[in-house]
Design goal:
Could be a nuclease involved in processing of the 5'-end of pre-16S rRNA. This protein is of the alpha/beta class. The chain is about 50% helix and about 25% strand. It has a single domain (about 5-135), classed as YqgF/RNase H-like domain (Nucleotidyltransferase, domain 5, 2-Layer Sandwich), CATH 3.30.420.140.
């Protein structure tokens, strides 16, 4: 099956998570500070090679009424670039509440605001990926 990489694609950062080999659990890996698109892709390539990933799940931010706004359009465009660059399957996954959920978890764990900022995207990526993995395991 191979590992799946989950990505939380934002304006300034890309949160990265990977699954275990069995596709059961997601683990936050790092937050990429976005620079140039080719730098972002190079770092993703290094991580994809290191973890031997066989596909990607990209968070798709939808509006609460299920429509796709400008932010979602950017994520779709990014997933197309990813597909072209890696030639691996890319799945878009509704991420509407992943950042909210990550924020709540960190607040409940009493993580300081400064520290939360450093890990929130990585955690959101892990939540996106975990939700995707959970939905697939029920099939």
């Amino acid at each position: 099956m191979g590992r799946i990489m989950g990505l939380d694609y934002g304006d300034k950062t890309i949160g990265v998570a990977v699954s275990d080999e069995f596709g059961w659990t997601a683990q936050g890996v790092e937050v990429i500070r976005r620079k140039k698109p080719e730098d972002d892709l190079n770092r993703l390539r290094q991580l994809a090679d290191e973890y031997a990933v066989s596909g990607f799940v990209v968070g798709l931010p939808k509006n609460m009424n299920n429509t796709i706004g400008p932010r979602g359009e950017l994520c779709i465009a990014f997933s197309e670039v990813l597909q072209e660059a890696f030639g691996l399957p890319v799945t878009m996954w509704d991420e509407r509440l992943s950042t909210v959920s990550a924020q709540r978890t960190l607040i409940e764990a009493d993580v300081s605001r400064k520290k939360r900022k450093q890990v929130i995207d990585k955690m959101a990526a892990a939540i996106i990926l975990q939700n995707y993995l959970d939905s697939n395991s029920k099939r």
